[in-house]
Amino acid sequence: MNDAHFHLVVTHLPIVGVLVGFLVLLSGYIIKSPQVKTTALGIFIFSALTAIAAFYTGEGAEQIVENLPGISETLIHNHEELAELFFTMMLVLGGASLLTLFLQFKKFPFVKHAFGLVLLLSISCIIISKYVGTTGGEITHIEIRNDANVIQLDSNHDSLDD
């Protein structure tokens, strides 16, 4: 397994994890279960840890793919910028989840506000994860790029000229 493969494996964990954590937290609110909400905090903490792995494997993946044919430095740069934002937001979410877990353990009365903050942070992370995942996929998957139809038309046009 090379660095690019490892990066692809671990990058899906925080993206899926933050979505699952959000759904678990939301269901904890709906059924009014502190245990379910605590489980969501654990999922967010785990997702933040996997975001660390995803972020720090990105450079090795870039070294492998940047010299492949059809790979755009602009696409890599766009992905890196969004990955930095997602990484930061996931660390904030993980830290807020850890703090909320502590507040819940100590039975502070304002813990409900901390859960609300975690819920809002998770929504922000989900939105950013959509963009970081898409820009990462666009690096090597030309079929999902916005210009995929243009590329297809250009290649069809070239073959008609032959």
UniProtKB/TrEMBL annotation:
Entry's transmembrane regions: 6-31, 38-58, 85-103, 115-133
Keywords noted in UniProt: Membrane, Transmembrane, Transmembrane helix
Name assigned to this protein: DUF2231 domain-containing protein
